[in-house]
Amino acid sequence: MGAALARTLHAPFLDGDQFHPEANVEKMRAGTPLTDEDRWPWLEAHTAALTQAAAKKDVAIGASSALRRIYRDFITEKAGEPVLFVYLDGTREVIGERMAKRSHEYMPTSLLDSQFATLEVPDPATENTLHVPVTDSVDKIVRTITGELDHLKSFKRWQ
Ligand SMILES: Nc1ncnc2c1ncn2[C@@H]1O[C@H](COP(=O)(O)OP(=O)(O)O)[C@@H](O)[C@H]1O
Ligand SMILES: O=C(O)[C@H](O)[C@@H](O)[C@H](O)[C@H](O)COP(=O)(O)O
């Protein structure tokens, strides 16, 4: 999804998967959920790379679970510029089915339940978030997001 959006916007795409310390990768591969402590260095590295890419190219696209509100607030604060969180809204069943079909370097489907247990759904009343049904086609999701970008440009909450 993120790659498709980035192609449309001619923007860099940075998948959060690339920014985990090796210890996190091994933990997830072994089927153990990450803790808050495990996630901070990952969020820090991913956000720093996104901020750098956005400084060069105006906008950058990242993909990440960013399950909790404190993680998203951290990303926004550290970026120091408007960040739009696109929440791909889907049931455990749909996401579980897709995960079972995809091939992934380290992420087992068994971690999905703990991810849903940790998830704090972004709140549109207090967060800069756009909710999109994950069952929409990739093209439709890209169109929905690009249609919202003016809102992103005028978002000043952290400035
Ligand atoms: N809108 C969509 N409609 C149908 N299948 C999708 C859609 N978005 C993603 N998928 C499928 O779901 C899986 C995961 O998509 P992806 O965007 O790569 O997410 P992730 O990075 O979380 O794996 C892939 O198998 C992809 O083909
Ligand atoms: O495609 C995926 O399934 C995710 O991108 C995954 O690989 C990611 O790195 C973890 O979701 C991080 O762990 P938490 O979701 O527990 O923060």
Automatic annotation (TrEMBL):
One of its GO terms (cellular component) is cytoplasm. The keyword Transferase applies. Keywords: ATP-binding, Kinase, Nucleotide-binding, Transferase. Its EC number is 2.7.1.12. It comes from Devosia subaequoris. Belongs to the gluconokinase GntK/GntV family. It catalyses: D-gluconate + ATP = 6-phospho-D-gluconate + ADP + H(+). This is Gluconokinase. The keyword Signal does not apply. GO terms for molecular function: ATP binding; gluconokinase activity. Pathway: Carbohydrate acid metabolism. InterPro entries: P-loop_NTPase, Shikimate/glucono_kinase, Therm_gnt_kin. Transmembrane segments: none annotated.
